[in-house]
Amino acid sequence: MKKTVFIACLLTVFSQGAYSATQDLIVKKWSDTTPGLSNFEIKFSASELPSGNRWTTLKLDMSFSSANGDVDIALNGNVLNQMLKHYDINTDEWTKKTGTVAPYSTGDFIVSGHISRKGPFKGNAGGQITATAKYEAIPPMGPKNILFAHGMNVDSGEWDYFNKLAKKAGYTVYSKDVYKCGSIANRAKMLAYYIKDQKIKNNSLIAVAHSMGGLDLRYIVGKANEAQAEEPFVTAAKKIKRVFTIATPHGGVDYAALDPGFGYCMPAVADLKNEAMAGFNKRFTYEKFKNPATGKIIPFMAFHFQCPVCGGFNDCAVGTDGQTWKGAPTEAASRTGSHADNKVVFGNVVCKSELLQDDVFQAIIKLGR
Fold first, then answer.
1. Which of these three, 77, 103, 137, is where a domain ends?
2. What's the predicted TM-score (pTM) here?
3. Whole-angstrom Cα distance, residue 109 to residue 107?
4. Which of 133, 180, 196, 362 could lock onto 232 through a cystine, CB 3.0 to 4.6 A?
5. pLDDT tens, position by position, 161-176
6. Domain boundaries, position 102
7. Over the stretch 308-351, which tens digit does the pLDDT of each residue have?
8. Count of domains observed in the chain
9. Can you point out the beta strands (E) in the chain?
């Protein structure tokens, strides 16, 4: 039986305290008297991690008492732009609870940043941050099965590079061409029948999806957990061990701001619009993203990208903020990449295709164990 252990770090801006530790709980207190700025740092050290274990999730709970202030927070030097970004404190009492980020690492990771007051209220901003980290035993390597699900208006050929890397790493690779411009429901049904028909053991398939393919996977698992669960969704969902999405438009897409040529790809475009995705997300939540065979939530990770060539708030197709699924684990920092199947270049700035990046593949393999 897998045991999940909690480690909590408490950072208090207005009080100084000594480091103390118990078997499962670590509490750290900190204070800074520098006028106008309170810098803080919470470090989870690899030496605190028992041998054979890895970090899984980090959750931050923050509460501040200030007026006209601001907060900036980073994880390992990368601003948590999907979770925290930059927040203005405009009320006397302000509380923020983040979602979770999932390092899945065995090394150090550090939460750092600053809290400050502005205007006539300049000075230290009082408050408290609680960082809770979980760790688990590194699971043994099981069957090496991996599925690549393609996006809208393309086919499984977009995964050619990752296919080669996966086969070289000893994985059995699965992929299926679904309707390029089909609805999420129709694409997901095609993919579910394909997974159902493969000789894959339950809870052994790593599923990796690009763009709309991530919504196909969410639909499969979501349908398998509804009251009127039906085939092929139940059998397909039972086989899925982990899910990774790459630049999936979980929050929808504003196609009015994109190439008008996308308009012909119906009914896919209709399903991906912001208003349609709002209903999709209400129906299929992360809390119900469970493997029917185990009854547990399927481990999930969203990789999100931005491209400075396209303004830095999207990957030239999908908004960076919309590439994360509310309540579900996501990488702490955005990667640089292009949604297209080739690189985007402007001057000295290059955005390499998301599906041609070795480090993305290696991250998936590392986290997929």
1. 137
2. 0.75
3. 7
4. 196
5. 999 999 999 999 999 9
6. 5-137
7. 888 778 998 999 989 999 888 888 778 999 998 776 666 677 88
8. 2
9. 5-12, 20-21, 26-27, 38-44, 53-65, 69-75, 78-79, 86-89, 93-101, 109-117, 126-137, 145-149, 172-175, 205-210, 240-246, 300-303, 305-306, 335-336, 344-346, 349-351
